[in-house]
From TrEMBL:
InterPro entries: Ala_racemase_N, PLP-binding_barrel, PyrdxlP_homeostasis. Pfam families: Ala_racemase_N. Belongs to the pyridoxal phosphate-binding protein YggS/PROSC family. Keywords: Pyridoxal phosphate. CDD domains: PLPDE_III_YBL036c_like. GO terms for molecular function: pyridoxal phosphate binding. Pyridoxal 5'-phosphate (PLP)-binding protein, which is involved in PLP homeostasis. This is Pyridoxal phosphate homeostasis protein.
């Protein structure tokens, strides 16, 4: 008998969480060491509230304005945290500094300077991941792996930015060997940075994997999987990459 596809957002979240846990166990890892980050882009804030009512407190958004809007609509939920996971233009740094708990797409000193200035003014600090372009696609933001250590060295000068790890998006498509290679490049870069005394931060976190590849990402060491569609339902196809890589 075929399994019924879950229809409610909480039911879908539970199914994904179970798949995350199973993938961690298959990889010989503890399920609690892998964070499931629900990404609510383009979806109504009511779904965020529904998951929060079940104890989910951290959500991801690709676009700053959408994250800010949802933050402002949920100020009655003081434990709710927002992770901005998409490319940041410097003119949006003030907004991120005001409300975000995490920024997972840092890829330049220019953006770091803008965030540092705004965070200092707000009297806040911010957890950040350095974004790695592990697939070499020109359409993607992020630094090539070989350029990441130089940025990591420069970030020692920024007191308000707490570098906690790396983030990447693997190449799209069904070829698991290609996807695995992307994740392994970032895992190897993590190893290098953990041994690099000049690099700012801890590099204990690897944000890798989305709805279509999170199980493979967990096998390759991911500590945070960013899942949108599998939890919140389908979106128009053009949104999938548009929200990560807006037109330059």
């Amino acid at each position: 008998m075929a399994m019924t596809e879950p229809t409610g957002v909480w039911e879908r979240y539970q199914r994904v969480r179970a798949a995350v846990d199973a993938a961690a166990e298959r990889a010989g890892r503890r399920p609690e060491d892998v964070t499931l980050l629900p990404v609510s882009k383009t979806k109504p804030v009511e779904l965020v509230r529904e998951l929060h009512a079940h104890g989910v407190t951290t959500f991801g958004e690709n676009k700053v304005q959408e994250a800010l809007g949802k933050h402002e609509q949920t100020t009655d939920l003081p434990d709710l945290r927002w992770a901005v996971i998409g490319h940041l233009q410097t003119n949006k740094a003030r907004d991120v500094a005001r409300f975000a708990a995490e920024f997972q797409a840092l890829d330049s000193v220019k953006v770091a300077r803008a965030l540092e200035k705004r965070l200092q003014a707000e009297g806040r600090s911010l957890d950040v991941h350095l974004q790695v372009n592990s697939s070499g696609e020109e359409s993607k933001f992020g630094l090539p792996p070989e350029e990441v250590p130089a940025l990591a060295h420069e970030l020692t000068a920024f007191d308000s930015l707490r570098v906690v790890g790396l983030m990447t998006l693997a190449a799209p498509g069904p070829d698991t060997a290609v996807v695995r290679a992307c994740f392994e490049r970032v895992r190897e870069l993590q190893r290098r940075l953990l041994d690099d005394d000049r690099a700012a931060g801890s590099y204990t976190q690897l944000s890798m994997g989305m709805s279509g590849d999170f199980e493979l990402a967990i096998e390759c060491g991911s500590t945070c999987v960013r899942v949108g569609t599998a939890i919140f339902g389908e979106r128009p196809p053009q949104n999938d990459y548009q929200h990560y890589w807006p037109e330059r």
